[in-house]
């Protein structure tokens, strides 16, 4: 039996008027060749998925969920906001019950869900709430050819709230999660995690802010005492260079737009989003719904292919652990 035999991956197709359905169809053609023993279950409206090019067969199943309203590619309709959440809820519930080994999520439109009357910040926060996980970590990663990984100490916060959200305790918890999941799901025996400062020049010895001295450095001392290899804090504007990254497995950035612009510049179209700390495996694309490309057949499935590959690979590592 191959290592990926019986591994089952659920794919939620996300916003129905975006590129998610067609990217799923395109990516699965590639995924079936690389993972011939894996099973894929695609969650979405059957007619929509067929229209966007998905053909179910012995290796691909469709978990049908009916749209609430007809769709036209590129034109948002709040009536389908709860449909998108239904796909996600179904995938989460079955993953928690062990029926799915991993979840891959296509992009969704946050505004549509909010317009449907459901307060929604993002996939990461929703997955944490639905699984009862007190702390999760967002990590974006490149492909196997571009292995840069960037995790975030904070996620979708206004910049004015970031400093208050970073505490010694939160950083220790975050680094423990990153270290654990890099070992358990990525097969890294001794991960090396480089940690950025918060302020320009990592605070310039306190002249540009004291978070590095009062919060970040004490947190790093605590995790190093636990056996976690987490040097820093480094100035973020100079850290992302090959000479520093060549021996690193991940960078922990303090906020969303500190680390992700660098990663997306280096890997966009091939990168993925991984939620660490969950009791289930979840990967996603590194881009949005691309409403202008929906239905045109011109959207690049590279990120979805990479997300599926990562989901299967992570499930295999978890099974072998």
3D structure, described in words:
The structure is a single chain. 40% of the residues lie in helices and 14% in strands. The chain has a 10-stranded mixed β-sheet with strand order 3-2-1-4-10-9-5-6-8-7, with helices on both faces. The chain folds into 2 domains: 1-133 and 278-321, Isopropylmalate Dehydrogenase; 135-276, Isopropylmalate Dehydrogenase. The relative contact order is 0.18. It has 321 residues and is of the alpha/beta class. The mean pLDDT is 93. The longest helix is centred in the middle third of the chain and has 19 residues, at 168-186. The protein has 12 helices and 10 strands. Helix 1 packs across helix 12 and helix 7 (168-186) crosses helix 8.
In short:
The protein has 321 residues and is α/β, with parallel strands linked by helices. It has twelve helices and ten strands. It is globular, with a radius of gyration of 20 Å.
- Count every beta strand, where a strand is a DSSP E run of 2 or more residues: 10
Shape designation: globular
**Count of runs of 4 or more consecutive helical residues:** 12
One letter per element, helices H and strands E, the order comes to EHEHEHEHHEEHHEHHHEHEEH
Which residue ranges are poorly predicted, with pLDDT under 50 across at least 5 consecutive positions? none
Assembly classification: single chain
Strand order across the biggest sheet?
3-2-1-4-10-9-5-6-8-7
- The whole-number mean of residue pLDDT values reads 93
Beta-strand level of the residues, as a percent range? 5-15%
Number of domains: 2
């Amino acid at each position: 039996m191959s290592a990926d035999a019986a591994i089952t991956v659920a794919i939620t197709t996300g916003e129905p008027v975006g590129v998610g359905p067609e990217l799923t169809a395109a990516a699965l053609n590639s995924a079936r060749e690389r993972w011939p023993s894996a099973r894929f279950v695609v969650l979405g409206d059957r007619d929509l998925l067929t229209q966007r090019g998905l053909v179910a067969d012995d290796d691909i199943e469709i978990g049908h969920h009916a749209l609430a309203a007809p769709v036209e590619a590129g034109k948002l309709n709040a009536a389908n906001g709860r449909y998108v959440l239904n796909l996600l809820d179904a995938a989460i519930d079955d993953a928690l019950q062990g029926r799915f080994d991993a979840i891959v999520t296509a992009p969704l439109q946050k505004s549509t869900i909010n317009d449907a009357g459901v307060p929604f910040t993002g996939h990461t926060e929703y997955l944490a709430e639905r699984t009862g996980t007190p702390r999760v970590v967002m990590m974006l990663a490149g492909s196997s050819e571009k292995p840069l990984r960037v995790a975030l100490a904070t996620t979708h916060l206004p910049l004015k709230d970031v400093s208050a959200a970073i505490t010694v305790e939160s950083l220790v918890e975050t680094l423990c999660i990153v270290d654990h999941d890099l070992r358990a799901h990525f097969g890294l025996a001794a991960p090396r995690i480089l940690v950025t400062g918060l302020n320009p020049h990592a605070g310039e010895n306190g002249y540009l802010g004291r978070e590095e001295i009062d919060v970040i450095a004490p947190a790093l001392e605590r995790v190093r005492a636990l056996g976690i290899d987490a040097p820093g804090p480094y100035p973020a504007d100079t850290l992302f260079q090959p000479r520093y990254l060549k021996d690193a497995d991940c960078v922990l950035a303090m906020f969303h737009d500190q680390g992700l612009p660098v990663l997306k510049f280096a890997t966009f179209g091939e990168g993925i989003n991984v939620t660490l700390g969950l009791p289930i495996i979840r990967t996603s694309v590194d881009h949005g719904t691309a409403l202008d490309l929906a239905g045109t057949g011109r959207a690049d499935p590279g990120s979805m292919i990479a997300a599926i590959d990562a989901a299967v690979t992570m499930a295999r590592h978890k099974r072998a652990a």
